[in-house]
Write a structure and sequence with these properties.
Blueprint: H1 10-27, H2 38-49, H3 54-62, H4 68-73, H5 84-91, H6 94-106, H7 108-118, H8 122-133, E1 142-143, H9 144-154, H10 159-175, E2 184-185, H11 198-204, H12 220-233, E3 243-247, E4 267-268, H13 269-274, E5 278-279, E6 288-295, E7 301-306, H14 308-316, H15 320-339
Antiparallel strand pairs: 1-2, 3-5, 3-7, 4-6, 6-7
Helix pairs in contact: 2-3, 5-15, 6-8, 6-15, 7-12, 8-12, 8-15, 9-10, 10-11, 14-15
Length: 354
């Protein structure tokens, strides 16, 4: 779950898996020392021109180790293989909901300030961090210095994208005077509480506690502000809904409507109405929405109409399932907060509350 582009199309995935299988035997022993690896050497030279010391870059890249498991993991993302009900079950557990309440209570001042500055409700920011890392409990087990070079120089389709992420990662580590070999993240190089990929880290991370450092690895306050800033920069509309429920055909989504595309609202309501998809709240017939068809079991569907704020959530992860999981987790956190008794006992310990 990362703020990076989601893979599109099973055909590409199948071709990629085949290519990776053919490549694997020949690259198991590969490393990324600039003295031996041409791609690493070229990247190092570019970063030297940007002002990073050659010796530091050599030391960083010489630590990097090729990881076949990183390439394998790219083919197994849950967003590509699960139905909505299966995906939802991962994130809408009572413990994760209760921990979201506790996380907001523990950092209430930061959440309220983020809402005031960026217009993003505490529950949405908490839900992003909750889905990504269970509020900082699981921030990744892969050394970023291994994952990103592996993807940058050995991924057959998205190498250029990850090369840019590797460059940004090295710049961040250098600027913050951190040993790049000490930093861990996801298999795709996403980092810290909110799992920002390096280019997002550089573009949207903020020093929200004013200590002079943008620290998403260990500082939840910076993470809270940074998620709020990310959403604001991508067009979050304060005090506006994320989606509306809709009624649709019992036999599933009609074939003449293109559902679940993670782009700005693109289908008018009157077109949906002609196909049997009708909003449960009154809306302008010319309004554009993102038609969502969520598979709730092998033969049942739930229909929803995504709005502009739903699109903004998909900028964090280009999956309609991800965006809906964040939305429903936020709803559950908000509901539990309203029900919480006035007590110092953490929500995660109040089994009756969930």
């Amino acid at each position: 779950m990362t703020p990076a582009c989601k893979w599109k199309g099973t055909g590409v995935a199948a071709v990629t898996a085949t290519v990776l299988g053919l490549l694997a035997p020949s690259i198991q022993a590969a490393d990324f020392s600039p003295a031996e690896h041409e791609g690493a050497r070229q990247l190092m030279n570019e970063l030297v021109e940007r002002g990073i010391e050659r010796e530091w870059l050599e030391g960083a890249l010489e630590q990097a180790v090729f990881q076949q498991g990183v390439l394998d993991a790219m083919e197994g993302a849950a967003e590509r293989r699960l139905r909505w009900d299966e995906y939802r079950e991962i994130f809408l557990q009572p413990e994760r909901i209760a921990r979201g309440v506790d996380f907001i209570e523990a950092h209430e001042d930061a959440f309220l300030r983020a809402q005031a500055e960026y217009g993003v409700p505490p529950e949405i920011i908490a839900a992003i961090i909750g889905v990504e890392t269970s509020y900082g409990r699981f921030t990744g087990r892969h050394r970023v210095i291994d994952s990103l070079p592996t993807l940058a120089f050995h991924h057959p389709v998205r190498g250029n994208f990850f090369r840019g992420e590797l460059a940004a990662f090295l710049e961040i580590a250098h600027e913050q005077d951190v040993d790049p070999g000490s930093l861990k993240g996801s298999y795709a190089g996403a980092m810290g509480y909110p799992q920002f990929i390096p280019t997002s880290y550089r573009a949207y991370a903020v020093d929200f506690d004013g200590d002079g450092l943008r620290d998403l690895w260990t500082n939840p306050v910076d993470a809270i502000g940074s998620v709020g800033n990310y959403f604001a920069e991508h067009g979050w509309q304060a005090d506006q809904p994320i989606y509306h429920d809709a009624q649709g055909p019992d036999d599933g989504p009609p074939s003449d409507i293109d559902f679940n595309r993670t782009q700005r609202p693109y289908v008018e309501l009157d077109e949906l109405a002609q196909a049997g998809i009708v909003s449960e709240v009154e809306l302008d017939s010319g309004q554009r929405v993102i038609p969502l068809a969520l598979e709730t079991d092998e033969s049942s569907w739930r229909f929803r109409l995504g709005l502009d704020n739903f699109y903004v959530i998909t900028r964090y992860n280009h999956s309609h399932l991800y965006a809906m999981a964040v939305t429903e987790l936020a709803e559950e956190i908000a509901a539990l907060r309203e029900l919480m008794p006035l007590t110092d006992e953490p929500a995660a310990q109040q089994g009756d509350a969930t």
